[in-house]
TrEMBL record, chain A:
The chain crosses the membrane at residues 26-58, 70-89, 109-128, 148-167, 246-266. The keyword Mitochondrion does not apply. Keywords: Cell membrane, Membrane, Transmembrane, Transmembrane helix. It comes from Candidatus Caccousia stercoris. Pfam families: CbiQ. The lineage of its organism: Bacteria, Bacillati, Bacillota, Clostridia, Eubacteriales. This is Energy-coupling factor transporter transmembrane protein EcfT.
Length: 271, 288
């Protein structure tokens, strides 16, 4: 039941997006997200939406996965959009009591909804097409300059790898413990907030204990396999940015430039 | 004792840190074991016999409080050769879930060679070879949590093989597996022993697993109780029983029949037992 969390689930494939350098993907997604918020008019927003759609199509990942990740945030999108309806100037479209909906509010709401959905879809493209290991690997490479500030980049990346590896294992275990406690008559569903939080304790404690045991075992297994930190370590998969990454960079930069230009040339809708 | 063994443990003593106000107790109390290159050794004993502690001595995860352990002539106390020892002697643990590091099978197998600083192209070759050796090549892009226990354990073995060890020590690798997973893992390690000449030390409390080994070492209370070929060891039914150890079911049956006055040979496997019993049955007339 708690196992179908879409975010952060890698879907193996061999599409153009799958084969891109994860470092390039991370940087481009980040850039894209920034420009989602730079865009100030419908033309540039449309351009970005079309680009996101293109990314989704190129990724070759079945639509249902994307729908699932959007579904998860639908409430937040609706909530923020409705909230935004009441902000912004322009002519009054509707008046209910003391609340007014103005044209600026409507475009505000559309903008925020499109932005959040695009943001989620884009990060979904990234996590669907990049294996967790290459993702952490890429983050490790990208953060390497931080070593100057004595930040243990390799250790952080290793912790992320292990955390990702154990998410499904621990979820499975939580399920098992919940069933076991239910079988002993534990009531997890009824009662007020405090009572329910208390009912979670008999699940969390065994989970913690077993996590520590797992950590001990894993540390030993890692030592058995000669792990001794990042020093002198090599990687099976060497990241190298190729022609398609260069092309992707150029395309994204052009899109971003177009957004900036349209911001200057076209009058902004939001005001 | 033989000095030319691949692993030589000499009079190994070991005690864990005692709890407050308790006397320290020796988990290992003068164990001398020698393992030859290419051997298949089963290390038997019930819980608390010191067999798992002994396993950790073989790859310098634990160091003896007294006595010495040599791996291929290297002293396990010597920190300078620590990783060389761990590369040569791989250790596979009991719980398959807790020893896989990465979320993709092939990346997990690559973990060991990556730690050793092997060039990327060679890691690729080794990973593919190791996965083929355990029959898991088709699963190389899967997520470990979707595999069965036996498959996970084979991945763990592949992760060790990718480091090209001389010896693999397996600490009750089948204890958490279903019968099918057990036979998968056992088949794999027997094949590695025969085809690649990898020395295998199988720690187990399953008697039927020990029967298939070339040599059996029985431990009890931190000592080596018995040592020899499976037939030699399991024929000492009385001694094993005195130390609350089981014998294979076939052996048990023939032993009891012997006690009742039937001159039976000592059998180890079900097939042998059936044959021995069949010899007693009157020849059956074929039904026309």
């Amino acid at each position: 039941m708690i196992r179908d969390i879409a975010l952060g689930q890698y879907i193996p494939g061999d599409s153009l997006v799958h084969r891109m350098d994860p470092r390039v993907k991370i940087v481009l997604v980040f850039l894209f997200i920034v420009f989602l918020f730079v865009a100030q008019n419908f033309v540039s927003l449309l351009l970005l939406v079309v680009s996101v759609a293109a990314c989704i199509l190129l990724s070759g990942v079945p639509m249902r996965h994307y729908l699932k990740s959007v579904k998860a945030i639908l409430f937040i999108v609706l909530f923020t959009s409705v909230l935004n309806l009441f902000y912004g100037g322009g002519e009054t479209l509707l008046k209910i009591g003391f609340m007014e909906i103005k044209s600026g509010g409507v475009s505000n709401a559309i903008f925020i909804a499109v932005r959040i959905i695009s943001l989620i879809l884009l990060s979904a493209v990234l996590t669907f097409t990049t294996s967790p290991t290459s993702l952490t690997d890429a983050i490790e490479r990208l953060m390497k300059p931080l070593k100057v500030f004595h930040i243990q980049v390799h250790e952080i990346a290793m912790m992320m790898t292990i955390a990702l590896r154990f998410v499904p294992t621990l979820l499975e275990e939580t399920d098992k413990i919940m069933s076991a406690q239910k079988a002993r008559g534990a009531d997890l569903e009824s009662g007020g907030l405090v009572q329910r939080a208390k009912a979670l304790l008999p699940i969390l404690i065994p989970l913690f204990v077993s996590s520590f045991r797992r950590a001990y075992d894993l540390a030993m297994a890692m030592e058995c396999r000669c792990y001794h930190g990042g020093e002198g370590r090599t990687k099976m998969k060497v990241l190298h940015a190729g022609k398609r990454d260069a092309v992707a960079c150029v395309v994204v930069v052009v899109i971003c430039a177009a957004v900036v230009v349209s911001n200057i040339v076209l009058p902004t809708v939001l005001s | 004792m033989t000095e030319n063994g691949f692993i030589n443990a000499q009079d190994v003593m070991f005690a864990y840190e005692p709890e407050e106000g308790r006397e320290p107790r020796n988990v290992l109390d003068g164990v001398t074991i020698s393992i030859q290159r290419g051997e298949f050794v089963a290390l038997l004993g019930h819980n608390g016999s010191g067999k798992s502690t002994m396993a950790k001595m073989f790859n310098a995860m634990l160091l003896p409080t007294e006595g010495k352990v040599f791996v291929d002539g290297m002293d396990t106390v010597d920190e300078a050769v620590l990783y060389e020892i761990r590369r040569r002697v791989g250790l596979v643990l009991q719980n398959p879930d807790n020893q896989l590091v990465a979320s993709v099978v092939e990346e997990d197998v690559a973990f060991g060679p990556e730690n050793l600083g092997i060039p990327p192209e060679e890691i690729r070759v080794r990973v593919d070879e190791a996965l083929k050796a355990v029959g898991m090549y088709d699963f190389r892009l899967n997520a470990p949590y979707k595999l069965s226990g036996g498959q996970k354990q084979r991945i763990a073995i592949a992760g060790i093989i990718a480091m090209q060890p001389d010896c693999i020590v397996l600490d009750e690798p089948t204890a958490m597996l279903d019968p099918r997973g057990r036979s998968e893992v056992l088949e794999t390690i027997h094949r590695l022993n025969e085809e690649k000449g990898i020395t295998i030390v199988l720690i187990t409390h399953y008697m039927d697993e020990a029967v298939q080994a070339g040599r059996v070492i029985v431990m009890d209370g931190g000592h080596v109780l018995l040592e020899g070929g499976p037939r030699e060891v399991f024929s000492q039914v009385e001694l094993l029983k005195k130390h609350q150890l089981d014998v294979p079911q076939a052996t048990e049956l023939t032993y009891r029949l012997q006690g009742m006055g039937f001159p039976m040979p000592c059998t180890l496997t079900t097939e042998e037992c059936v044959e021995a019993l069949a010899a007693y049955l009157p020849p059956v007339q074929a039904v026309p």
